[in-house]
């Protein structure tokens, strides 16, 4: 058994330790120390501090990972949202809405009815009055299509918000620890 003198990294006290031991607790400050045998000197390293550092690093990595997930989610939703966009009457793109689809559909149906009654009143020849019917059919089709698009857009949007909020909560939790 060979005794060697080391200096505690926590409080500076001189400690006598067996050269064969790897870990020691300081008699004075109770720091857990690792005895490091270098080629020339033997010194100590505080273990708890090290452990805390690695823990903090792991925590940081987790936060970075979660932030990447958040960014990816945002990107995915942005492109998904783009696929839901509908082209409005004036050529501008906007998100589908149930109210907008229904209002547009009713407006178009009324237009078709007006067309048919006008064609009937002036005694237009056949296929003219029928164009109104075709127009109404198309209006109903786009109304249903628009409303279903709007409802899946809304439900996917809610789903996205939920996933996003849970990621943000996780990031906050990791940061707090
Ligand atoms: Zn000490």
Structural class: alpha+beta
Please give the domain count: 2
The counted number of beta strands is 7
Q: H/E series, N to C?
A: EEEEEHEEHH
Fold and architecture overview:
With 177 residues, this protein is an alpha+beta fold. The chain has two domains: 3-48; 75-176, no CATH class. It contains three helices and seven strands; from the N terminus they run βββββαββαα. Helix 1 (47-84) runs antiparallel to helix 3 and helix 2 runs antiparallel to helix 3. The mean pLDDT is 85. Zinc ion is lined by residues 8, 10-11, 13, 26, 28-29, 31. Zinc ion (ZN) binds at residues 8, 10-11, 13, 26, 28-29, 31.
Entry summary:
The chain is α+β, with helices and mostly antiparallel strands and 177 residues long. 63% of the residues lie in helices and 16% in strands. It is built from three helices and seven strands.
Helices and strands, with pairings:
Blueprint (H helix, E strand, L loop, with lengths): L2 E5 L6 E5 L4 E3 L6 E6 L4 E5 H38 L1 E2 L5 E2 L3 H24 L6 H49 L1
Antiparallel strand pairs: 1-2, 3-4, 4-5, 6-7
